Amino acid sequence: MNAKVAKFLLCKVLGWKMLLVEPPREEKCVVLGVPHTCIADFFIFFLYTRAMGDRMNVFVKKEFFKWPLGPILKSLGAIPVNRAHGAGILKEYIRIFKEKEHIHLALSPEGTRKPVAHWKLGFHAIAHESGVPVYLGHFEWARKEISYGPRFEVSDDAEADLRKIQSYYKSFNPQGKHPDRVAYLK
Length: 186
Known about the structure:
Helix content: 25-40%
Largest sheet: 8 strands, mixed
Distance between the termini: 37 Å
Strand content: 15-25%
Number of domains: 1
């Protein structure tokens, strides 16, 4: 899908506003999608990144890559991962991330679309281990605004970084499609 078609669909058909119209310049980065409350977030962010000429990637369980869904997922930027490794999944994510020449990895720090009390720090570990920045992207369903958000350099202190990142989101309290699933920002 080319940028003009994606922008037309996102802005004209669906009524979203793009707040930042330039993708990250780095070959590799992690982009947070907050708040992640429904599967539609993926499609909105997909259109947003394509509208700017970017190609976003996401990790998806390898079991979904069987025909006919596999080729479709790959065309959307999905990368198959083996989630059977349990505790080793983060190492798998970091390995894959480091192997890619170009990867703008979209992650949900919530780790699920259900309400959670605490964010997972996998995004921080991937960024820290790979020496890449994190972009504080958001979906604002109430105003239909979407953005990559500001660039954030992670430090050695994941908990302190998480407090700063959550403080940023709390400052404008983005509303998810299902606001009742956004427990961590309250």
